[in-house]
Design a protein that fits this description.
Elements: E1 5-6, E2 10-11, E3 42-43, H1 46-53, E4 60-63, H2 73-84, E5 89-93, H3 103-108, E6 112-117, H4 122-129, E7 137-139, H5 142-151, E8 158-163, E9 165-166, E10 172-173, H6 188-193, E11 196-201, E12 221-224, H7 245-260, E13 269-272, H8 276-292, E14 296-303, H9 305-312, E15 316-324, H10 327-335, E16 339-341, H11 344-348, E17 362-365, E18 369-371, E19 376-377, H12 393-399, E20 402-406, E21 410-411, E22 414-415, E23 417-418, E24 433-436, E25 439-442, H13 445-450, E26 458-459, H14 461-472, E27 484-489, E28 495-500
Parallel strand pairs: 3-12, 4-5, 4-8, 5-6, 6-7, 7-27, 8-11, 11-12, 13-14, 13-17, 14-15, 15-16, 17-20, 18-23, 20-24, 25-26
Antiparallel strand pairs: 1-2, 9-10, 18-19, 21-22, 24-25, 27-28
Helix pairs in contact: 7-8
Length: about 500
Amino acid sequence: MNIDYIKDYGEVIAFNGAFSLKPKEKSLKKHIKLSNPTDNKVYTNVKELIKKTGLKSGDTISFHHHLRNGDKVVGIILQACEELGINDLKLAISAIFPTHDFLVEYAKKGIITQIDTNYCTGKVANAISRGEFKKVAIFRTHGGRARAIYAGDLEIDVAFIAASATDNAGNINGTMGKNAFGSIGYAMPDADCAKVSVAVSDTIYPYPLSNPSITQDKIDYVLMVDEIGDPNGIKSGTTDITKDPIQLKIAKTTANLIDESGLLKDGFSFQTGAGGISLASAHYVKEIMKEKNIKGSFIMGGITAYLVSLYNEGYFNNIFDVQGFDLEALKSLQTNPNHYEVSSSLYANIHTSSPIVNRLDCVVLGATEVDTNFNTNVMTSSNGYIMGGSGGHSDAAAGAKLAIITTNLIRTRKAIVKEKINSITTPGESINALVCEYGIALNDKTLAKTLKNSRLKILDIKELASIANDICGVCEYEKSNKRIVAVVEYRDGSVIDVIRQV
């Protein structure tokens, strides 16, 4: 990448390998304040609360996405900011869903001028792609966001942390109250490091709150609102096992690959996404574990009802939960003693001493495009429009012993495996294998040696690209020279790619 500086982003450190960039020596911690015994933390008037925080135009405000497509907190805060005449805000939100489509109007009004996120869908993604935000967007990984906060690369002026339950001192969690949603792991770095942290809740309990996820010493104010959101919106996207016969074939091949890798044994640790193929892969892995009487150590990631069932049925001893993908995950976190809520930093921050991703045996991931060097795109569609983001993709791929991409070779008459791709999210060096309906491509010499006598169909990835080309035609790839609308950061803070205006 021949870019040294990007306006409204700053100096560019180009990606040069998954573990090449050394961390900064400093770590940002909470600002020191004087606390008086007579101080009142609880507010019911949004504008009064915002004035108390000292929020001003040009500041950075942060939110988490645990309510996913049911969130209402972002809208409550921004409406008050507009009424107070506060503008030119940087919105640091861990993920954006269609429920946040109204952000496009705030961008047009100049109230929000920059987005800093890990994942983005809906009208906001389209608006960023078309260059409708004044400043370049920044896309990080889940672990990369935590790293940036602690390193001081992402300085938050005011963090607004949705909590389903609070007390009057600011002890909060997401597992109690009328709108409980589960783990609150993505907000923990914000609470640790923001200049001001505000808990936003609709249910208050007597002091002290039972089992707080974030404690009162990290919360400066509590804002009580009528409703923080609708937990039914948590289940957004695919959280059910696919019924598509081709995808089931891919999933079964994936499970057999995991088995033959030698990693599927007692103590096995596993992460899978919420997509249909990924969950089907987990089902077939379960069948092998059942047949061989294998007991796994932990499952991790975005937790779904199916992953909870693997724990309940005794296939895994523990669940590490940084976010819930449905309400069954919430119920499990409320009741299962070995279902642990973890922060995004503990989950995947490359610049901590031991993130959990480094303990992973295997992760199964998806892709929108993969090139013949195994570089993977989960950021844009084939037409260049933003339709997602890394989330934990790059984090888990880098940490796991075996990182597998599962995908159809062809989707909606378009090749997924090709010589060049629109954008790189996860570097090929972190990917060990790709599984599609035509077979398996390996990017790991040790694994190739292990599978030398396997009955699994193993092809060179260039063969897969050739098959796709024969069916779909050669994909014409043109790199745009238009304005940069988004910076794609790798988990260490280096820039792995940029997205240009469509």
